[in-house]
């Protein structure tokens, strides 16, 4: 029965393509979208009724991943997934899945959406740049929103505007500022390959606080009252160095709606002994447990969740160290000991390395209020390790002084990763894609692009494989730059510079704190030849764990650069009246005196003539 | 005289060449006094780059100039010889363009002088001819244009204003020498490049119709009437009147015909250049629309940028209309009043445009100051010249200082710079009004002429 009901959506999907065998594929080109949709819904409804299959259930899973970081911090990553089966099978009623989200998806025909609120900056050097965590969950500061719509291209901009307002209301944030056409852009391939139905916007200055977290938690069936979300004790999670709260939606006719909510925080373990805080080579890493990190312990799972797991991940370097020390990688070994014995141990593989990390799995349903889970790590020996970096460390900065012009520089420092991976072939190259959105008041001269590799200037065509520019329009469009670069592997440092002029705004366009400057959103640098996907060969379909599924997805290595702060010149805000009156006076002076000079002649000359005549007579 | 003139002209050209070739990058191109969003060569290079990338050069708010310039100057901005600043080839072209403009101004001056001598002769005032004209106005005007520091800065500072100026000068020269095709070419190109020279159609038609500046018709009338009184020959009177002030339609119609032809040419070429990347509609919107709606609020030596940065949005359209109409309003009164002096009228219009245009630059001032030189004999006794001279010097020294204080040091604010803009506009206004008023109230150069006429008129009466 279940197989039967799953068969239908696939058929329905084929119905969209003109090449399909379905008899009604011709409806789309000739009928209006509303008619088509209504027909579609009618069909879906009848199909669902006809199949009369037991609908797939709505599912909810909750997971938490903890990981020690090399710089004596700890990473906690919460992952909640709610999924709803295709709308037709359940109608408009939901048991677990948040209704607000399903309405949003249906109303705006979203096929993919990601919204992230981030405070702080992901430290790519210390916390890693090559693992699924950094590629998926390291986000630029502030709000970032992108969405792919399943709509005709002409309707997308209007839908995007409505969507921003809806999300703004849902999450108590000023996402509605993304409504203005100066705030969002439509990248074609630099961000994510699409057919023009993707919109991307970022608000780098948006402050993130608990008022954004509360509505986010409301989408969870148990909120933060039970289960893993119970650990989200506000004072401790907002104390962290990095805080990124994300909501990702995927929706299709076959899958239904999948809502992934993740919260990634980097915390300083709240250790008791103060002297341990002073980082030193000979010193132990701080020991921590859930209680230290969150001030809470985990007392069982959220009752409606299908699975509820806690993972502790140890990095490849630690694994290597343990292997070197000779002991096997059980939960208690020469280097560290975990406070509870795990239910399972999973080996992870990177696609370039043999072995990348170990996961210790705890099932939260085995713990109760009487016997809460307080998993933690205690170090036995001092240990120094590093995370795998991305092939190039990208950073962006401003050059020049004054408020008239400047340059944006993007610099790449090699991390020599390719040597570890592929030896050192002499004439290899590494591809990098740059995606950058610049607000219109930063008027970039794209012809001034200059590229320096290891200090020597290169012509643009040597390095740039492909470039796509949407130049900015004053008060209308931001500038979008998508660039595919090819760096030689031997490159140690590369720099790209672009000159720009600073724009001058109307007095009303300045924000209240105009002298603070304006933010240029982060640029995104991705390395399409490198995939951060992990694979877990030892386990069968990944325990049904969405988190590990996510880690297995093929995603390119990417990193966000810094947000830039550009100070712009300000006019005098206090004297519009003075300016108006002065200018008008000068113009009146011009007009009046000129007309007067023209008018004066007649009388005077005639008088003069008369005078001469009189004199001569 | 002639030898000294050529020495000075060659020295001016040489000075420009030295600045271009050995001056290094003087960063003049980014000075707000020199290059405006319309004339900046850097923006042209960006437009050319966009066009090469098969995007419309007008997409993005960078380029607002003509597509013709884009295809002529664009390829030159690409090549960059070592050891020289970016736009050296263009700068060399601008030196040549400036020299050509100066030569045309000189030729215009000579034409004016010949016409003037002719009209004085026709009034039987050969003595006045020999007395009154002591300086060759054409030489003075072209030297003023060549040695004007603003013209030099504009020429060296990588902006396209020298070409716009040249087109205006070509138009005036063509009209003065009654070469209708040339005048039409200059007119069409100048209008195409910066819109405002469109109002110069009035002096051009007057020049073509009446010929270059002559003494007021009144003088001839008086002369004629005195003659009629003296010997009662109606025949003589009418012929003289006809000689002096008849409006000949033929060159005007010729001019209009050529105007049409050149406009078609320009539009055709533009549409060919923009064929695959946007069209003419976008071109008009991004050039003329940009000029008329003052979209760019970056500072310049005028006052409109700050006005529109501060004015309430609600009134923006109203003031846009007011400021644009301000130029149109005075066209007719001036044309009526100065119709016997079309060349002077052209100077007045150029000055008005330089004062009121939305993105003024030093290059515009250089043009009207050069043309002012053509009337050096007539305006020799103008009032406030000392004040004006030092006013111009003061403003051109203070303006960069204030700009630096505001933009680079951050110690001054926008009002400082705006104040120099206000002062500059006032100065220009005073110069304009004084030159008009002076010409009108006390035509000093004509004073001997008038006196001679009056005396010749009076004598028979006395007797």
From TrEMBL, chain A:
Q: Where are the transmembrane segments?
A: 577-598
Q: Which domain of life is it from?
A: Eukaryota
Q: Which InterPro entries match?
A: PIG-T (IPR007245)
Q: Name one GO biological process term.
A: attachment of GPI anchor to protein
Question: What is the designated name of this protein?
Answer: GPI transamidase component PIG-T
The chain's coiled-coil residues are: none
Query: Cellular component GO terms, alphabetically?
Result: GPI-anchor transamidase complex
Instruction: Fetch the Pfam families from UniProt.
Output: Gpi16
The protein's organism comes out as: Miscanthus lutarioriparius
Alphabetized, the UniProt keywords read: Membrane, Transmembrane, Transmembrane helix
From TrEMBL, chain B:
Q: Where in the cell is it found?
A: Endoplasmic reticulum membrane
Membrane topology recorded in Swiss-Prot or TrEMBL: Multi-pass membrane protein
Predominant location of this chain? endoplasmic reticulum
Pfam families listed in its UniProt record = PIG-U (PF06728)
Single GO biological process annotation from the record? attachment of GPI anchor to protein
For whether the record's keyword set contains Transmembrane, the answer is yes
Superkingdom as given in the UniProt entry: Eukaryota
> Which keywords appear in this protein's UniProt record, sorted alphabetically?
Endoplasmic reticulum, GPI-anchor biosynthesis, Membrane, Transmembrane, Transmembrane helix
Which pathway is this protein engaged in? Glycolipid biosynthesis; glycosylphosphatidylinositol-anchor biosynthesis
Membrane-crossing residue ranges in chain numbering: 86-107, 195-211, 255-275, 287-308, 314-336, 343-362, 382-402
For this UniProt entry, what's an example GO CC term?
GPI-anchor transamidase complex
Task: Look up keyword Transmembrane and say if it applies.
Answer: yes
Q: Which family does it belong to?
A: Belongs to the PIGU family.
Q: What is this protein called?
A: GPI transamidase subunit PIG-U
Q: Which organism is it from?
A: Miscanthus lutarioriparius
Highest lineage ranks of the organism? Eukaryota, Viridiplantae, Streptophyta, Embryophyta, Tracheophyta
């Amino acid at each position: 029965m279940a197989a039967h009901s799953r068969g239908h959506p696939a058929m329905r999907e084929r119905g969209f393509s003109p090449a399909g065998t379905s008899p009604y594929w011709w409806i789309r080109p000739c009928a209006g979208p509303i008619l088509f949709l209504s027909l579609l819904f009618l069909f879906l409804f009848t199909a669902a009724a006809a199949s009369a299959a037991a609908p797939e259930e709505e599912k909810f899973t909750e997971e938490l991943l903890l990981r020690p970081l090399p710089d004596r911090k700890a990473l906690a990553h919460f992952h909640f997934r709610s999924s709803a089966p295709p709308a037709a099978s359940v109608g408009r009623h939901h048991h677990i899945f948040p209704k607000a989200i399903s309405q949003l998806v249906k109303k705006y025909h979203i096929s993919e959406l990601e919204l992230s609120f981030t405070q702080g900056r992901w430290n790519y050097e210390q916390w890693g740049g090559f693992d699924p965590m950094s590629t998926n969950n390291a986000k630029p500061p502030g709000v970032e929103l992108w969405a792919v719509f399943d709509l005709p291209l002409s309707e997308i901009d209007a839908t995007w505007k409505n969507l921003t307002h809806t999300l703004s209301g849902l999450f108590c944030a000023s996402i509605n500022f993304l409504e203005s056409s100066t705030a969002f852009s439509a990248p074609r391939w630099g961000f994510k390959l699409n057919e023009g139905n993707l919109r991307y916007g970022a608000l780098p200055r948006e402050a993130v606080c608990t008022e954004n977290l509360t509505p986010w938690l409301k989408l969870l069936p148990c909120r933060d009252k039970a289960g893993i979300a119970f650990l989200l004790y506000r004072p401790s999670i907002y104390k962290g160095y990095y805080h990124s709260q994300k909501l990702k939606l995927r929706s299709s006719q076959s899958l239904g709606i999948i809502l992934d909510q993740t919260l990634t925080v980097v915390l300083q373990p709240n250790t008791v002994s103060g002297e341990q805080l002073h980082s030193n080579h000979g010193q132990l890493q701080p020991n921590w447990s859930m209680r230290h990190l969150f001030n809470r312990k985990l007392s069982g799972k959220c009752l409606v969740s299908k699975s509820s797991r806690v993972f502790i991940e140890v990095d490849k370097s630690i694994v290597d160290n343990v292997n070197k020390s000779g002991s096997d990688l059980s939960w208690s070994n020469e280097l560290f000991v975990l406070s509870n014995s795990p239910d399972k141990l999973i080996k992870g593989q990177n696609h370039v390395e043999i072995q990348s990390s170990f996961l210790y799995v705890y099932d939260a349903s085995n713990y109760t209020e009487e016997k809460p889970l307080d998993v933690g790590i205690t170090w036995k020996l001092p240990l120094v390790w590093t995370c795998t970096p991305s092939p190039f460390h990208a950073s962006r900065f401003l050059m020049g002084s004054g408020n008239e012009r400047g340059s944006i520089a993007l610099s790449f420092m090699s991390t020599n990763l390719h040597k570890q991976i592929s030896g050192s072939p002499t004439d290899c190259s590494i591809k990098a894609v740059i995606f950058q959105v610049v607000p219109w008041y930063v008027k970039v001269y794209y012809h001034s692009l200059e590229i320096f590799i290891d200090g020597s200037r290169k012509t643009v065509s040597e390095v740039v494989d492909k470039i796509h520019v949407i130049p900015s329009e004053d008060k209308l469009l931001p500038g979008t730059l998508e660039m595919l670069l090819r760096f030689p592997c031997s490159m140690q440092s590369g720099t790209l510079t672009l000159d720009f002029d600073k724009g001058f705004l109307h007095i009303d366009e300045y924000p209240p704190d105009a002298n603070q400057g304006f933010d240029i959103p982060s640029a995104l640098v991705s390395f399409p030849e490198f995939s951060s996907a992990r694979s877990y060969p030892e386990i069968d379909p990944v325990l049904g764990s969405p988190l590990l599924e996510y880690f297995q997805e093929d995603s390119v290595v990417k990193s966000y650069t810094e947000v830039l702060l550009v100070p712009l010149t300000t006019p005098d805000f206090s004297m519009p009246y003075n300016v108006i009156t002065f200018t008008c006076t000068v113009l009146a002076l011009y007009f009046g005196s000129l007309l007067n000079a023209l008018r004066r002649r007649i009388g005077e000359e005639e008088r003069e003539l008369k005078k001469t005549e009189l004199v001569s007579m | 005289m002639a030898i000294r003139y050529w020495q000075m002209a060659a020295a001016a050209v040489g000075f420009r060449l030295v600045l271009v070739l050995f001056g290094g990058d003087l960063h003049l191109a980014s000075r707000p006094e020199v290059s405006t969003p319309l004339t900046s060569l850097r923006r042209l290079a960006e437009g050319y780059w966009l066009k090469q990338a098969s995007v419309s050069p007008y997409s993005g708010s960078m380029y607002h100039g003509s597509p013709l310039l884009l295809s002529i100057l664009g390829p030159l901005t690409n090549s960059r010889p070592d050891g020289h600043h970016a736009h050296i080839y263009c700068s060399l072209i601008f030196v040549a363009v400036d020299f050509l403009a100066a030569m045309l101004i000189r030729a215009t001056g000579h034409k004016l002088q010949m016409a003037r001598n002719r009209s004085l002769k026709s009034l039987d005032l050969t003595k006045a001819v020999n007395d009154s004209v002591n300086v060759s106005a054409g030489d003075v005007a072209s030297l003023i244009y060549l040695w004007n520091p603003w013209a030099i800065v504009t020429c060296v500072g990588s902006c396209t204003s020298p070409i716009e100026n040249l087109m205006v000068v070509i138009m005036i020269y063509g009209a003065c020498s009654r070469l209708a095709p040339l005048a039409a070419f200059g007119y069409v190109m100048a209008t195409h490049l910066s819109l405002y020279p469109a109002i110069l159609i009035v002096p051009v038609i007057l020049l073509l119709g009446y010929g270059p500046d002559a003494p007021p018709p009144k003088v001839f009338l008086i002369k004629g009437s005195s003659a009629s009184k003296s010997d009662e020959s109606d025949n003589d009177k009418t012929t003289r009147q006809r000689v002096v002030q008849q409006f000949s339609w033929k060159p005007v119609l010729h001019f209009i015909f050529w105007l049409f032809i050149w406009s078609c040419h320009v539009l055709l070429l533009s549409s060919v250049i923009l064929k695959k990347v946007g069209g003419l509609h976008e071109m008009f919107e991004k050039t003329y629309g940009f000029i008329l709606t003052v979209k760019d609020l970056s500072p310049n030596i005028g006052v409109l940028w700050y006005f529109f940065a501060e004015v309430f949005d609600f009134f923006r359209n109203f003031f846009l209309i007011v400021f644009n109409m301000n130029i149109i309003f005075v066209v007719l009164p001036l044309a009526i009043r100065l119709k016997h002096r079309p060349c002077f009228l052209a100077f007045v219009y150029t000055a008005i445009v330089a004062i009121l245009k939305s993105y003024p630059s030093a290059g515009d001032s250089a043009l009207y100051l050069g043309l002012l030189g053509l009337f050096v004999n007539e305006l020799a006794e103008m009032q406030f010249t000392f004040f004006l001279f030092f006013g111009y010097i003061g403003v051109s020294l203070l303006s960069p200082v204030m700009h630096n204080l505001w933009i680079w040091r951050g110690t001054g604010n926008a009002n400082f710079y705006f104040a120099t803009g206000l002062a500059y506009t006032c100065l220009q206004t005073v110069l304009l009004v004084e030159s008009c008023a002076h010409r009108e109230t006390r035509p000093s150069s004509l004073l001997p002429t008038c006196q001679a006429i009056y005396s010749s008129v009076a004598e028979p009466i006395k007797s």
